[in-house]
Amino acid sequence: MNRPVIFILTKEVGVYHAFKNKLKEIFGQGIQLASNHFPPVDMNEVDLVLSSGSYEIYTEYLGTGIKNVPLIIANRSIDFNKLEQLLDIPADTKCLLVSNETHIARDSVELFKRLGFDQLALTAYSPDMNPLPELEGFDVAITHGLTELVPPKVKKVVDLGDRNLDLSTIFEIARTLELSIDKPHLYTMDYFRNFVRIGRELATSIQNEKFLNTHLETVLDAVHEGIIWVNANGTITVFNEEASNILGIKGSNVIGRHYSEVIRDLNIDDVMDTKREIPREIIQVQGQHILITKTPNFLDGEFAGAVVTFQDVSHVQRMEQEIRKKKTESGLTTKYSFDDIVGKSEIIEQTKNLSKKIARSEYTILISGESGTGKEVFAQAIHDYSSRKKGPFLAVNFAGITQTLAESELFGYEEGAFTGAMRGGKAGLFELAQNGTIFLDEIGDAPPNIQAAILRVIQEREVMRVGGSKVIPINVRIIAATNKDIHQMISEGEFREDLFYRLNQLPLDIPPLRERQQDIKVLINHLLDERNIKLSLTAEMLETITNYNWPGNIRELEGLVNYLTVVADGVHAGVEHLPLSMKPRTTDESEVNFAINYLEDQGDLILFKKILYSLLMYKNQNSGIGRQTIISILDVPISEGKLRVKIDALRKCGCVYSGTKKQGTKITELGSKVLEHI
Fold this sequence. Notes:
The chain is α/β, with parallel strands linked by helices and 678 residues long. It contains 25 helices and 28 strands. The chain has a 5-stranded antiparallel sheet with strand order 12-11-15-14-13.
């Protein structure tokens, strides 16, 4: 049997994907899908046209239409969970309801009023209106996934997400194509609630109403939630199978009777008397803990009854555990929270407290700190503490990554965009991080073109796949991190100043380990406890490692603990067990004399002295300083090329250390001794 072809006609590609996913969820492999967004399409093979908008969209794309091919204009439902965002908007607030077509915007205004949001001053808005409404005084814009159409003057945007196919449209498709709906358990409670409100209006014929009612009963019995519908007179008209299982009452014994006669423990009087929603609460019924919500229903402004939904709390807990498990398996979750950041020093406590404050905002964060200080741990903890904690967390490290790879990883690509591109294309990290957080690690290593692309994403809140032509709106919180001196990179033209200010809205500096000396012993004990190893350090050992500079910070400390657990004899570790590079040593006079003689042979000993002195001024800085900074400090003119030669000479005799990847130059202990003698 040939599978029927449904041609999905939408203005926005995001709406197409929403329709596609829902149709595949309901009908599985029993259908084939085509779209105006992915030509070419052989319209002779199309069995049904499903349009997201008016008949005008149909004629715009298909002219006079296709003979003998039925057209269904989709009814679209609202995600009722997201409507909670509107409850926080004060009454009489002037709100724009933004859509991409005038009639949809106006219909949406009417829909929201019928849903009970008539306390808001709603005005329809669409770019195709002529004339456009005056925009003065509008505080909020409400839209369904079309944030890019919101006028810039309106600062607050409530995005309720793309509207998906309504239950009535699913049934109409099934009837038109003679498809079987054999997976009713895939329907959600949002479908049910939407159906209760508009079901009778959509049942325009006896045949339609009979079809809808037959399948509604199947849907209600399939969901894992007890559902009771009580009309305005208090008569029970719906009592699904799960309600029977939870309450131990047969539906046939309660349908048609007043709720007060047969149901006592749910306290339905609350919603019937107040005609207001009683939000989720936990009550005890016959020894079970029940999570219950009671919602009034209004039709044309008149109270029409109430819907009572409830679940066994143990079932809810099992579902949450399963969601966490799948999220962890997908790799889109965090491993660390603020509880995993070990330390008792004042500076680390201050840093954690500041991190918790900025976690509650939506602004971009730039985390600065030396290598090994735990920047990603803080990034994950911030995500875990934020309102986006239930969303994904994705990280990308720019160290050593090519521009092409960075572009495809961040923004994704369409099929055929380049040689080796996956069939069907691939979503980028910004898409995958929707409603969550993306962590841009080592942002200082991002190629210039990628810097420009990231800046555009921050400004426009949208991405475009490589090889694609459609913009994809995103809702992602950005956290970036670097161990470089970004200010120096900006002065040298290697990092965009405008991107820096976009990222640095909430700066966070992670202290190096040498500034957390109080935490060193605490961290070591923590690492040993994790490994279940008994090992004590001598007082001399503790003093030595406390005074050590720790250029690798916590990562280096963890390496030391691993080293000691292998080389230490018994349960005690002393200075003799330290690696050679960490053992205390003094700079002897012969090394100083050798360095001075070497520099004298190079000439310009006074210039070497001035360079060392300029570096000494920044000795306690987290990282080294760049050549441009040194030139600005010196009181004699010098070219960058000549300075590079002098620094190279100082490095060869051990007086300075030049880091990699633009980490600058620092003076060594030997360099400080040499400076004292010249």
